[in-house]
Amino acid sequence: MTNFTLRSILSFVIPLVLFTSCLDVETDDRTYKEEMIELSDLLSGLVAEGYDIDTTALGVYYVVFNEGVGESPVEGDTLSISYNGYFSDGTLFDTSEEWATDGIWEFVYGEQSLITGFQNALSVMRDSSQMQFIVPSTLAYGEYGYGSIGAYQTLIFAIEMHDIKPAN
User: Fold this and answer.
1) Domains in the chain, number
2) Per-residue buried b or exposed e for 102-111, using 16+ beta carbons within 10 Å of the residue's own CB
């Protein structure tokens, strides 16, 4: 990811850690209600810090650091992205830097099995855009979690769209 994106991630994740660290909510036995309280506090804190938060039609919250250019992707387009995935306490749980060539993941949009919130997040991006997304558990791994991701865990993704190659 570029230095701009790294600064953006840090300026976004550090307030997340500050606002959620005082909540002391365990993720193992969390309830939906606890997640919603944490999410509300998180969003309120980010607004208080001056972030402009928007929401997709499905309910993924996002902050735009670079709008990018052109059109948003449609099914069949080939996307090249880099991303970091964080828990709401700022812990990194996944990154394209670990497994994708040069940290950039290339795939056909709509053909890759993605969590609903991640798929929906990509739908509002454009070429060269840089955004941070807050994905409620209802659009991620829900009440059961998955692997190291606990039940009712809100996820945060910092995504940079490097390229959108149209399907045609």
Assistant:
1) 1
2) ebbbeeebbe
